[in-house]
Amino acid sequence: MNRSPLKSAVRIVHALLQRSALMLRWLWYQVTVFVWDKPVPLSTRFYGRLRVAYVPSHVSVGQSCGFGHNVFLSAGREARITLGDMVTLNDNCVFVASKSIKIGDRVAIGEQVSIRDQQHIHTIGKGVRDQGFEVAPVMIGANTW
Q1: Nearest alpha carbon to residue 138 among 86, 88, 79, 58
Q2: pLDDT at 13
């Protein structure tokens, strides 16, 4: 297979730029979001924008985790979000914790998934906003998709 030197050079530059972008995202989130709690391992990959509702974030991230585009994490003042090793959060995932969300090791979470540890109380004839909500910790075990 004959490849032109120009194509090879373009592939090399493209690979270097991709790796540089991953490192810059990691550094940015390290110093803006995770500096308040537990540092994020160097093996963590941010493939797009990470949104965090509160800083300090109260989010723990294990080894070799991956974050897709536009992931949103919201841990309240007394709440915690804990991700085990090798957890993947795909594009547009939403995590909202009032108490606790724990994700085990080697868990893959698909696109557009919303995980919340609270639900609204609802009785017929009353508006949802006036009834409050119930809170219970969420735990997803290891090796789950």
Answers
A1: 79
A2: 87
Ramachandran angles phi, psi of 75, nearest 5°: -115, 120
Residue located via tokens 């606790």: 100
pLDDT of 82 > 60? The answer is: yes
The per-residue pLDDT for range 27-37, each reduced to its tens digit, is 888 887 777 77
Quick one: which of 35, 34, 98, 37 has its CA closest to 67?
Answer: 34
Name 88's bridge partners: 66, 108
Radius of gyration over alpha carbons of the chain, in Å?
Answer: 19
The pLDDT value recorded for residue 1 is 55
What is d(CA 110, CA 38) in angstroms, rounded to the nearest whole number? 25
| β-bridge partners, 66 | 45, 88
Cα torsion 42, 48, 49, 54: sign: negative
Phi and psi (nearest 5°) for 131? -110, -5
